[in-house]
Design goal:
CATH superfamily: Glycosyl hydrolase domain, family 43
Largest sheet: 4 strands, antiparallel
Number of helices: 0
CATH architecture: 5 Propeller
Strand order of the largest sheet: 1-20-19-18
Helix content: under 10%
Strand content: over 45%
């Protein structure tokens, strides 16, 4: 079994000031009938991330029905953790609202950037920040940055799998980050407990970036898809009995780069979701979303 690629859904045309380039880290939310709303992050002319959305009918997911005319979430106020960009990472239900966990961007001096995770709340179609500060940031024991996360609430509490930078190193004279996937828990989705537990670690010395976890809790086990990078990004896969201890099984990811076209050089940022009787994957290709995003179905 493997993922069968259906095709590319969307690529910005560059006509809107806040949506010049990129359609990164897509996330799907099933709505009425066969309609699915896909949220994604795009960039303006200053390379700052904004949140956008579009609608598709899953009977023909390559045909876009509508697209947001205005940014749903934009960079924060000057000096805040997200003043250089707001990039969506995960959506989860909380009561009658949707909570949007997003990556805030700050530009750096000694290193290119610093990330943290914030929350915005969607209520009656309007998305507003829960607060101007992050809910997950660097700490005494995690001194560099945190970023893309997956959040699953349950009756016993909230669970998060998140990107944790473990250090910077000089590579060809430039700073290069190293990050893996760690685990956190919470009683309310805002205050998170972290003990440094690593869920997906580097497979070899040449691997330096593991990001964008997407976890599904199936009846038999937890399943995670993620990006990992040595030379260029690929999509990996792991399984776990409890969501804490994971076994990497990248050979069973079931998806790889195409021979040519928009996802021929790299493939990354998977989001896996179920719709009807099928399981789908949204993903990016070349250029970290610069060539848009596509969809595949598990067969």
């Amino acid at each position: 079994m493997a993922w069968r690629k259906i095709g590319r859904i969307f690529l910005p045309t560059g006509e809107l000031e806040w949506m010049r380039t990129h359609a990164s880290m897509p996330i799907a939310r099933t709505e009425a009938n066969n309609n699915v709303k896909i949220y994604f992050s795009t960039r303006d002319s200053q390379q700052r991330s904004h949140l956008a959305s579009l609608d598709v009918d899953m009977r023909n997911p390559l045909s876009v029905l509508a697209i947001s005319e205005h940014a749903l979430l934009s960079p924060g106020r000057l000096g805040t953790f997200d003043d250089s960009g707001a990039m969506l990472s995960w959506i989860t239900e909380h009561g009658d609202n949707l909570w949007f966990y997003y990556i805030g961007w700050n530009l750096g001096v000694s290193v290119p950037f610093r990330n943290a995770v914030g929350i915005a709340v969607a209520s009656n179609g309007v998305i507003t920040r829960l607060g101007e500060g992050p809910v997950l940031d660097r700490t005494f024991t995690e001194p560099h940055f945190v970023a893309s996360c997956c959040v699953l609430p349950s009756e016993t509490g909230w669970t998060m799998w998140y990107l944790s930078c473990v250090g910077w190193e000089l590579y060809n004279g430039r700073p290069r980050h190293r990050y893996n996937i760690k685990y956190a828990t919470s009683a309310d989705g805002v205050a998170w407990r972290r003990d440094g537990r690593v869920c997906i670690d580097f497979a070899h010395p040449g691997e330096y970036a593991i990001s964008r976890p997407t976890v599904i809790r199936d009846p038999d086990c937890f399943r995670m898809w993620y990006s990992f990078r040595g030379d260029t990004y690929r999509i990996g896969y792991a399984e776990s009995a409890d969501g804490i201890g994971w076994t990497r099984m990248d050979h069973e990811a079931g998806i790889a780069c195409s021979q040519s076209c928009w996802d021929s050089k790299m493939i990354e940022y998977p989001f896996v979701f179920d719709h009807g009787s099928n399981r789908y994957m949204l993903y990016n290709g070349n250029g970290y979303g610069q060539t848009g995003f596509g969809i595949a179905v598990w067969e």
